[in-house]
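Project outcomes to date are best conveyed with an example. Our students and postdoctoral researchers have been running inverse folding experiments weekly, and each run begins with a structure described purely in tokens. The record below, which covers 432 residues, was selected by the lab manager from last quarter's runs and is presented without edits.
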């Protein structure tokens, strides 16, 4: 009654954990039939049995770890059945696992048992023998070693023959990385594909130069990339948005020389932060620091990439003073003359992404701030005014906020306040 032992699955691992038994005691198993799922440090694989017969005993339960070489199954004969030779270098399963290599395919082996003339033509895919092979002629060079090692490459796989792999893990590794096995030259005996062959193909793919140009993530671009990555990694953000009638907003802007749409939106943002100060904050350790000063950042596109200049103490400035500060900082940024200190220390950011022709955006919060407000393009849309359908100038306001510093009620309240200011700017300005 042969014992089937846990093979080395080609990973150089020392143990595997039983996930699921695929057979029960008393079941008839055939050569190459998967009998158990085993999880290694690399993957979950189905392990095929190299013996044929009836399962007499199983060793190990799901969740139990077994060392490589431990007995998995004991396989015996059914009543009245003649013994079937165990896999060897002459007759075997055809399923190549380290320690269970064979030289013949199961199709040929079964054909030989049925008798001549009825089987499929012999396969030409020798695998890994389990014992040292006898000396061969000079024309054949493969050398076999013990059950945990394979050395020397064999002949190239003949054309039209399905590729053989050294273990299910190697087959899965190729599949998950999008490699076709029939394009890989195997270095094992008879062209058997080993793990090193798949790794060689992956290394060649990764080292191949990609078409196009490369832009180093360094300098200003590198700093921006690092901050955005930190924001995504550390801030649990949420986004709320609202459509707004901006017809009067455009009228108010036209009546204020030197005041841009962004500056007017910045003014309403400062007013909103004085009413909802939770959004003018940051998380420091296990505390929320609500800040007294409003240092308002605004996104500015330059030839060197996106930068966020900061208007210090924006809450102390008039509308015209805030507009002048934004203009000066934006000009310095685009000319590449802005001081590094003017790009740090913000407590809240506004962004006019409408200049790029988009309606909305789930913007990334400028870490370590707690929120960012954006405005989309202003376009003609149907809008109901006093119960009548009219064509109005409509825009979308979007607020992304750190859900740790406030809930949706606060964020929604702030956004609604700013939206009301955009919709009725003259009223909002009159209250200043």
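After processing, the design step wrote out the following sequence:
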């Amino acid at each position: 009654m042969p014992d089937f032992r846990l093979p080395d699955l080609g990973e150089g691992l020392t143990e595997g954990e039983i996930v699921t038994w695929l057979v029960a005691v008393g079941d008839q198993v055939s050569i190459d039939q998967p009998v158990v799922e085993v999880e290694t440090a690399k993957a979950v694989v189905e392990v095929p049995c190299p013996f044929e017969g009836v399962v007499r005993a199983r060793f190990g339960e799901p969740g139990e770890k077994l060392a490589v070489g431990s007995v998995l199954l004991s396989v015996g004969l059914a009543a009245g059945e003649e013994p079937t030779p165990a896999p060897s270098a002459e007759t075997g399963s055809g399923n190549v696992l380290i320690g269970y290599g064979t030289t013949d395919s199961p199709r040929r082996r079964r054909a030989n048992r049925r008798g001549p003339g009825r089987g499929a033509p012999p396969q030409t895919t020798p695998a890994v023998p389990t014992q040292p092979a006898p000396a061969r002629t000079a024309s054949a060079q493969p050398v076999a070693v013990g059950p945990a090692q394979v050395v020397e490459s064999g002949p190239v796989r003949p054309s039209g023959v399905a590729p053989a792999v050294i273990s299910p893990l190697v087959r899965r590794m190729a599949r998950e990385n999008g490699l076709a096995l029939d394009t890989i030259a195997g270095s094992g005996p008879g062209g058997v594909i080993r793990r090193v062959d798949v790794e060689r193909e992956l290394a060649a793919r990764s080292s191949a130069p990609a078409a196009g140009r490369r832009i180093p993530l360094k300098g200003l671009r590198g700093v921006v990339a690092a901050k955005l990555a930190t924001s995504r990694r550390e801030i649990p953000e949420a986004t709320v948005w609202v459509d707004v009638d901006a017809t009067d907003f455009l009228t108010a802007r036209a009546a204020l020389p030197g005041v841009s749409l962004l500056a007017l939106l910045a003014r309403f943002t400062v007013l909103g932060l004085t009413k909802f100060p939770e959004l003018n904050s940051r998380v420091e350790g296990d505390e929320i620091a609500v800040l007294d000063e409003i240092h308002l950042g605004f996104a500015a596109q330059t030839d060197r990439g996106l930068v966020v200049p900061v208007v210090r103490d924006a809450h102390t400035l008039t509308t015209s003073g805030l507009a002048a500060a934004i203009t000066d900082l934006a000009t310095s940024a685009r000319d590449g003359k802005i001081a590094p200190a003017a790009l740090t220390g913000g407590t809240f950011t506004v962004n006019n992404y409408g200049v790029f022709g988009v309606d909305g955006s789930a913007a990334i919060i400028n870490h370590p701030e707690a929120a960012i407000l954006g405005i989309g393009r202003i376009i003609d849309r149907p809008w109901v005014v006093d119960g009548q359908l009219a064509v109005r100038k409509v825009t979308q306001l979007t607020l992304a906020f750190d859900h740790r510093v406030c809930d949706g009620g606060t964020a929604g309240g702030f956004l609604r306040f700013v939206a009301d200011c955009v919709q009725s700017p003259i009223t909002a300005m009159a209250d200043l």
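The CA atoms of residues 157 and 191 lie 5 Å apart. Confidence is low (pLDDT under 50) at residues 83-96, 98-155. The training component of this project remains on track.
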